[in-house]
Structure formats: structure tokens, C-alpha cells
Amino acid sequence: MTQDELKKAVGEAALAYVPEGEIIGVGTGSTANYFIDGLGAMRDRIKGAVASSEASAKRLAALGIRLYDLNEIEEMPVYVDGADEIDAAFCMIKGGGAALTREKIVSSVARRFVCIADASKKVDVLGRFPLPVEVIPLARAQAARALAALGGRPVWREGVVTDNGNIILDVHGLHITDPVKMESDINQIVGVVCNGLFARRSAEVLLLGTPDGVRTFNR
Ligand code: 5RP
Asked: If you take atom 5 of ligand 1, which residue's CA is the nearest one?
């Protein structure tokens, strides 16, 4: 099976986690897109969705799914999204699609985070995938120096502007053995809006696409 077929398989498997009549949190990326497409087929059985990016909002709306503003909602049963890396404790690196901040905000009000990932995303230690950090444009250089002091090699993702009007620094060369601490440490840097470590709030369920089928792991 190709990586894309594995992404499709997990995206579709996640539909089983969607309760009827509810508002669902929806992630961003190529794996999440398969989930969104499946959600379109059951749009009459859900109340609607909160999107984690403008791209996902557009895709959901095109399928006739009603969109809600997160400020209208106190809690959601489930948030479904992909990841760039996920470890054994279900801590993740996210933000390859530059949507990390909204993804973290939307997922924070969900009772259950269902991570959908192909097998290549499963790692022992986070950090081989460069860690995306969303930064206020004015703070780019000084935030980069502070990230370098934490042991990484930040690279400006030139040409990319997030849905929030900010920039992304991708931090290479990290070997993240304590993701909870690293997430907090990076959040302390002035000018950092959000970082792509989802460790303080990790996933509850992992649907992993493997050549032998979709494997389900619960935390
Ligand atoms: C977007 C994300 C995505 O979930 C992550 O990059 C995985 O993407 P894909 O499903 O395309 O492999 O965090 O900001």
C-alpha cells in the first residue's frame, strides 16, 4: 500500500469515532482531508464541525457541513487530526501544514483526540521531523536565537504565512526526550505564539495505518 492509501484508510477508520448529532473538531492536512471527505457522506448525521484551518473550513463547507466558531462551543466529544510524528506516549509533533496553533486550540476543548497517522509517523523519540514554531513576524530573529539556545537549528519557512498572520520557524536537530518540558520551555520564548509539540495534551487514541490494516491504540 502507498502512504496515501494508508492515510485514506485511517481517515476513514476515524469516522467510527464520530458521535451522531454532535459538533466535531476537525484537523488539517492530507490525512485529515480523507476524514473530512468521509464526514461529508455523513453530514446529515452530525450537527457540524469546528475547523482548525481556513483550508479545512473550505473543504468542510464545500461538502455542506455546517461550520461553528469555537467561541460558540464549550466542549466537543472528539477532535480528529493527523500528525507529523507520534511517540509511545501519544505525544506528537504537528504543524507540518502550519496550522498548529488553531489545531492546539480546537483540540484543547475536545474530550478525545483521535490521531490518524500512517505508520511512518510512529517514532521512539520525537524530533527527526523539524519542530514547527509559530512566531510573531517582528520576533523572528530573536525567537530563532532563543530556540538555538535550546539546542535546535531554527529555519524560517520562507513564504509561509499562517492563518493567524504569523511566520513559522522549523527547528531541526532536536532530540526530544522530555516533550512536556520542551513544549513549556518554547512557550516561554517572547514572540512565540505556539509550538508544534502536543505533549501537555497528547492524543487519547491512535489509529495507525499499516500494510496489515489499521491498528488501534488507546492511551
Ligand atoms: C498540519 C498538521 C498535520 O496534521 C500534519 O502535518 C500531518 O499532515 P499529513 O496528514 O498531510 O501528513 O499538523 O498543521
From this structure: 83
Q: Which residue CA neighbors atom 6 of ligand 1 most closely?
A: 96
CA 195 from chain centre, in angstroms, equals 11
Average the pLDDT over 137-142 and give the result: 98
What is the grid cell recorded at 17? 469515532
Amino acid in the structure at residue 189: I
Pairing of strands 205-210, 213-218: antiparallel
Q: What would the mean pLDDT of 6-31 be, rounded to a whole number?
A: 98
Ranges of beta strands (E only) in 72-210 are 76-81, 85-86, 92-93, 110-118, 131-135, 153-156, 167-172, 192-195, 197-198, 205-210
Provide residues with CB under 6 Å of ligand 1: 27-32, 81-84, 94-100, 103
Catalytic residues: 103
Q: Looking at the whole model, is its pTM more than 0.90? A: yes
